[in-house]
Amino acid sequence: MMRILILGIDGYLGWPLALRLAKRGHEVIGIDNLSTRRFSEEVGSDSAFPLPKPEDRVREAKRHLDVDITFYKGDVTDYNFLTEIMKKHKPDAIVHFAEQRSAPYSMKDRDHAVYTVVNNEVSTLNVIYAVKQIDPTIHILKMGTMGEYGTPNFDIPESIYVEAIVNGKKDKIIVPRKAGSVYHWTKVHDTDFLLYFHEIWGLTVTDIMQGPVYGTRTEEIVDESLRTRFDFDETWGTVVNRFCVQAILGIPLTVYGKGGQTRGFISLEDSMEALTLLLEHPPNHGEYRVANQFAEIYSVRKIAEMVKNAGEELGLKVEIGPLPNPRVEAEEHYYNPERKVLPSLGFYPKKNLKDELKNMIKDLLPYRERLERYKDAILPKTKWRM
Ligand code: USQ
């Protein structure tokens, strides 16, 4: 049994991870400033599934799963608040999800870019300094993103360093990174800070490079009251989740540009499984571990075809409606990231996109009227070139 502090416990990944870890017998403490709830409202949207208040979530978890979760409302950018909770609960591991996680939100204007940078960098620095001050042996499990690497024309290594020959001389360099939004750049900067302080203070870190997550289900979501948030608007929804809602609402699937943008996807259930494995098998003390976390590689165009097929099998009429790309990104490119850390811990994906798509559409169909209310928030308005 470990004591695990989840920063960002109210989020898409934070809540089901809390349920999973608590169910496995770990003591789970969480912090959230509820910002995603507010930001979703800011863009005229809401979670597809109605979200109970934090205190109701905790009560429902007790009722259905017989687990005790401690939930604090507060901000990780408040150093005193964070350190008080850490001193009180003495965690063995800290899961850091407490960041602004949307690329489009970070690209809206100067204010949103600055907010994203300040929130994400201050929260990461606070975690680093708090661990150093309170207990430098705490394992920091940090949510990064596959988007840190961008889409290079070489196989993406799963390590922090790579050997390179620059101007004829060989040296160890940090695996090259090229992010595609202010949000994604903050994750690069997080990696830079974590690596730097790991090197000078010997911190123990797992830096997870995760691809886009999709899905509505995990083993612990056994009742509607335990559902995690599910975003589908242009700002907070990720591509697979968005396409499922578009299929239900009869909106042609919004493939941006040529649709050859290729990413490593993972289901919510498999993401929980991978995160649990990484927590229960921490790196050695003072080690910096990078884990590329994805299950299947697809292009956006291929995903649209798969959602169309899944929707049509369930009786929906689904069209694919390519749109000019609001983002600046490669629309056809090479993509071959390495993945060996999770398999070495025994991870194998249990879900696949094809089957999960049907489950997602089935889970969302009863909420069609609710989804209709937020229809205006679906088409892309945020443009990278402004
Ligand atoms: N896309 C479309 N149509 C849409 C939405 C997205 O074609 O309606 C395309 C985007 O242009 C992009 C790809 O789908 O090429 C993925 O976009 P996304 O919105 O699903 O994901 P992204 O903005 O990259 O960010 C999401 C999460 C972020 C996480 C990241 C992992 O919001 O927190 O870090 O996925 S990764 O993509 O590997 O960087």
From TrEMBL:
Its EC number is 3.13.1.1. SUPFAM superfamilies: NAD(P)-binding Rossmann-fold domains (SSF51735). The keyword Hydrolase applies. Keywords: Hydrolase. Residues 4-289 form the NAD-dependent epimerase/dehydratase domain. InterPro entries: Epimerase_deHydtase, NAD(P)-bd_dom_sf, UDP-sulfoquinovose_synthase. GO terms for molecular function: UDPsulfoquinovose synthase activity. Belongs to the NAD(P)-dependent epimerase/dehydratase family. This is UDP-sulfoquinovose synthase. The lineage of its organism: Archaea, Thermoproteota, Thermoprotei, Sulfolobales, Sulfolobaceae.
